[in-house]
Amino acid sequence: xxxxxxxxxxxxxxxxxxxxxxxxxxxxxxxxxxxxxxxxxxxxxxxxxxxxxxxxxxxxxxxxxxxxxxxxxxxxxxxxxxxxxxxxxxxxxxxxxxxxxxxxxxxxxxxxxxxxxxxxxxxxxxxxxxxxxxxxxxxxxxxxxxxxxxxxxxxxxxxxxxxxxxxxxxxxxxxxxxxxxxxxxxxxxxxxxxxxxxxxxxxxxxxxxxxxxxxxxxxxxxxxxxxxxxxxxxxxxxxxxxxxxxxxxxxxxxxxxxxxxxxxxxxxxxxxxxxxxxxxxxxxxxxxxxxxxxxxxxxxxxxxxxxxxxxxxxxxxxxxxxxxxxxxxxxxxxxxxxxxxxxxxxxxxxxxxxxxxxxxxxxxxxxxxxxxxxxxxxxxxxxxxxxxxxxxxxxxxxxxxxxxxxx
Length: 407
Fold this sequence. Notes:
Blueprint: H1 2-13, E1 18-20, E2 23-29, H2 35-45, H3 47-51, E3 61-65, E4 71-75, H4 80-88, E5 96-102, H5 109-120, E6 125-130, H6 139-148, E7 161-164, H7 173-187, E8 190-192, E9 198-207, E10 211-220, E11 223-224, E12 228-231, E13 234-242, E14 248-249, E15 251-252, E16 257-263, E17 272-276, H8 279-305, E18 320-328, H9 331-342, E19 349-358, H10 363-372, E20 375-379, H11 386-394, E21 399-400, H12 403-406
Helix pairs in contact: 4-5
Keywords: GTP-binding, Initiation factor, Mitochondrion, Nucleotide-binding, Protein biosynthesis, Transit peptide
GO molecular function: GTP binding; GTPase activity; translation initiation factor activity
Subcellular location: Mitochondrion
């Protein structure tokens, strides 16, 4: 079944009429170097944002429309690890990486990390030297540092373009957008417009009133409200399709960020989105994927259980197992927490993630924790209700509301 879906997708793309599409750009950089400020400033340059009086609804992506009619889709990923995790799962959604480096701080550890992630993904980099309005700014020093790290800028005879900006002062943004458009033109980005849609999830969350919601970037084809879709291992019928402003739309095209409502469960960032003809076909494909995921999970658990301990470990010593349930506000955060906890694995400790979920801690989470002898880690979610807290206390279950507490 799965192979059939992939073969049909290949046939759709082969010989199809390809049309130019906007570039999808991911902004990366060291913490406190102004990534968030730059994204906010770019949002405000969007013609659509100005017309609507600013964006109030947060999505994992947004579009900047130029006076010329061209546009760029910006992707706001929750950290470098999430970027690489999506690439590892085949979600090649990014065309260009904007590397933000503060003009006063210069190259820092996460700057190097971002460069490594972009190079590993074979994605071109455009450098944005931010905070150029500060008295201590030294853009030339930053360029030399980047060059010494193997990033050859145009100023030094290389092909990596660099733009000096100030997100807070709103200077250099036009030049940055022009540079990104030029880079996109050089790449000749095209996609199939007609036929069934193919997309990737960039964020997923649980809304109390609307249920599971998935923000995605369209890759090819046309997505239409009312269609049956399979998203990762979940399925549903699109009840509502919304653009970046939260406006209900009927159709979505390549490179467009959209949010879909109507899924039966919550997908994960990096999951692919495919359109199927009927509900039965959607159910069948979803069931097959879930069964495969469970088989893979069991196989991995068995491999970890019988893993040979490090030579440094004392003979006869056993690894202490830490069963953990993770709850967070959105999938991206949940994945980041999961990665942090898994990094604790050693010859003495084995972190066993029992369940990963989005939303408030529920009674079912407490029941599962009691059955498995697990603790619950909640991140960026509201405190559990009094009945839930009491039930957890009676069952001797620890609930951590900060990742540092659990660590």
